[in-house]
Design a protein that fits this description.
By secondary structure, the chain is an all-alpha fold. The protein has one domain. The chain is built from 10 helices and no strands. α7 packs across α10. The chain is elongated, with a radius of gyration of 20 Å. About 25% of the residues are buried.
Length: about 210
């Protein structure tokens, strides 16, 4: 099974609160565990978007921290719908605004032409190289989510999940290999997939 297919397989039907809704609920509830996971998984993507804006390399981390503070302060009011758009779009809007704020407040250090400022508030041009670079960043996000889940999963559960979801070994063969029932194999696979969906907001890898 392809890596991208893995995180989307057996997905439950989407509804207005699903983004994944459990992740959003955890962030809105200020769950320390969910926030720690969010920062670990998504900070590199936020930094990628910041770097694409052409800011000074030394400013990237400061802007990233400002973005995280804005997300923390504003997540309670986020609702995914036709008016507000996707969670991914919301994150990118925050990045755009914090980059503009930084350039305007530090223009004396690294002056930027007005055309640059005007361009920052618009989505990145969807040129082939930009699309390819962002897809790579999103793929790396998925890899980080996978690794985070692996570290917090019992080794036997992970091995059964991997054999089923990635190596496509039959449930009966996995059950025999690990000395468990076929239901236990299905439960192990479902547990890991659910944890992945909690970390991986479905829209992040989708079109805007």
């Amino acid at each position: 099974m392809a890596f991208d297919d893995l995180t989307n397989s057996q997905a439950t039907p989407q509804h207005p609160l699903s983004t994944s809704s459990s992740m959003i609920r955890g962030l809105k509830g200020l769950s320390p565990e969910r926030w720690e996971s969010f920062v670990l998984v998504y900070s590199p993507l936020i930094r990628f978007w910041i770097r694409r804006k052409g800011v000074h390399p030394q400013a990237v981390e400061d802007i990233c921290q400002e973005c995280l503070r804005t997300i923390f302060a504003g997540i309670e009011h986020f609702e995914r719908n036709a008016n507000q758009g996707s969670f991914r779009g919301w994150l990118r809007t925050i990045v755009n605004r914090r980059v503009v704020d930084h350039i305007r407040s530090n223009g004396h250090e690294h002056p930027a032409p007005q055309l640059v400022l005007e361009g920052i508030v618009q989505p990145d041009g969807r040129y082939p190289d930009a699309i390819e670079a962002e897809q790579q960043a999103l793929h790396e996000l998925k890899a980080r989510a996978m690794e985070l889940v692996r570290r917090s999963t019992a080794e036997k559960t992970w091995q059964m999940f991997w054999a089923s979801a990635v190596e496509d070994v039959s449930t009966a063969e996995i059950a025999a290999r690990f000395g468990v029932t076929k239901d236990a194999v299905r439960v192990a696979k479902g547990r890991v997939l659910n944890r992945l969906r909690e970390l991986m907001i479905h829209e992040i890898a989708g079109p805007e």
